[in-house]
Amino acid sequence: MNEESIVRKIWGKADTILFIFAGSAAEFALNKAVDWLYFTGKLPADPLGRLFATVTYARKIIFSTEEDANVAIDQISGIHNQVEAARGAKIPDWAYRDVLFMLIDYSIRSYELLERRLSRSEKGDVFNTFRKVGVRMGIKDLPSDYNAWLFMRDGHLQQNLAAGHFTKDLFKQYKKHLGNIRYRLMIMVQSLITPSRVVQLLEFGHGKSLIPVLYFYKFSAGFGVQKFLRNALLPKAYIVQIKSMDNR
Question: Which of 64, 77, 99, 174 places its Cα 20 to 30 Å from the Cα of 167?
Answer without folding.
Answer: 77
